[in-house]
Write a structure and sequence with these properties.
Blueprint: E1 3-9, E2 11-13, E3 23-27, E4 37-44, E5 55-58, E6 63-64, H1 69-76, E7 81-86, H2 93-108, E8 117-123, H3 137-148, H4 151-170, E9 175-180, H5 183-196, E10 205-211, E11 235-242, H6 247-256, H7 261-264, E12 280-284, H8 301-304, H9 306-317
């Protein structure tokens, strides 16, 4: 059966919104988040064994500015937990949606009931290209700029999700956020925007899973709500997955001139006063050798390493009855 992915995107849609090729790498106006496109995509032929993400077969139920009633009803039904996914660098619209479906499927395949989720993706306007001249800073910094400028759009996406997440919480369902790579750069912009716009604390997520975060390593130091420092006001717990052997983040450190959150966790991570274990989990993935550690693979351990996937699924089950 096809995998259902509900989504929002701040990409400009140039053509029929039902067509995958209409979703460009250009961004809607930061002052008009109501122009964001919300829809539902069906993804077929994901193959977990072959590590292939499948393809979008149709994109029905599209509207501007918020979820359709059909999407809201679907997310409110079925008793499943909810997974919100923000993709990383070099993901086209189709990459982002099919990756969301793939993540949903392998988590469900873990056999952990709490990890069997409905998935909602946010696709910010990455170029979808790993290399553009001059190598590799052109495409990287263009994506980084787009992710950072998506803050108000992701914030509005969170605000539109809030009633859905609140209903899920009242039903005893858990709510997860999974941000990979440069998706954490978009996330930090959204957290800043949330509080800069006067929004208060909100129980959006039970767990924020930050995987291979391409964000500065001292992101949690910018109190009261700079960068990711106020994420704990939107999520009951935060799990930071990092790896010393992440070669992509090594390149990112060089390009940015600063250490990344996904390399060795946050600055001063061993300080339990600063990072109470009840709120922050630090997960060192450096020792996992159960996947192909090539350049790109070293950055994809959250889904390629069976050991890390097991940890993610188990984490999603923790506190299920809280």
């Amino acid at each position: 059966m096809p995998t259902t992915v509900h989504f929002a995107t701040n990409r400009i849609v140039n053509g029929p919104p039902e067509a995958v090729g209409s979703y460009t790498s250009d961004m809607i106006s930061p002052t008009k988040p109501e122009d964001a496109t919300y829809g539902t995509a069906f993804v077929d032929n994901s193959n977990l064994t072959a590590d292939t993400v499948g393809a979008i077969t149709s994109i029905p139920d599209i509207r501007k500015g918020g979820f359709s009633q059909g999407a809201i009803d679907d997310l409110a039904d079925g008793g499943r937990n909810l997974l919100v996914f923000i993709h990383g660098f070099a993901n086209s619209f189709e990459n982002a949606i099919t990756r969301a479906a793939f993540n949903c499927e392998w988590l469900a395949a873990s056999g952990v009931a709490a990890a069997d989720t409905a998935v909602i993706a946010f696709s910010w306007p990455s170029l979808g290209q790993i290399i553009t001249p001059p190598f590799p800073s052109s495409s990287y910094h263009r994506d980084q700029t787009s992710a950072g400028q998506s803050g108000v759009h992701v914030m509005t996406f969170f605000a539109n999700l809030l009633p859905i997440l609140t209903t899920a919480r009242a039903d005893g369902r858990r709510r997860f956020l999974l941000a990979h790579s440069m998706g954490n750069w978009a996330l930090k912009a959204a957290v800043e925007s949330w509080f800069a716009h006067g929004n208060g604390d909100a129980p959006l997520f039970d767990e924020a899973l930050l995987a291979a975060a391409d964000e500065i390593h001292n992101s949690f130091d910018f109190k009261p709500f700079g960068r990711l420092s106020a994420l704990d006001r939107l999520s009951r717990r935060i799990s930071v997955y990092y790896s010393h052997v992440d070669m992509v983040l090594g390149l990112s450190e060089f390009l940015n001139g600063s250490k990344r959150l996904g390399q060795d966790g946050p600055h001063d991570r061993s300080n339990t006063t600063r990072f109470p274990p009840t709120i922050y989990r630090m997960v060192d993935c450096s020792g996992f050798r159960d996947y192909n550690i090539d350049f790109q693979g070293s950055h994809q351990y959250y889904r390629r390493s069976p050991g890390v996937r097991t940890d993610l699924a188990s984490t999603m089950a923790e506190g299920a009855n809280a």
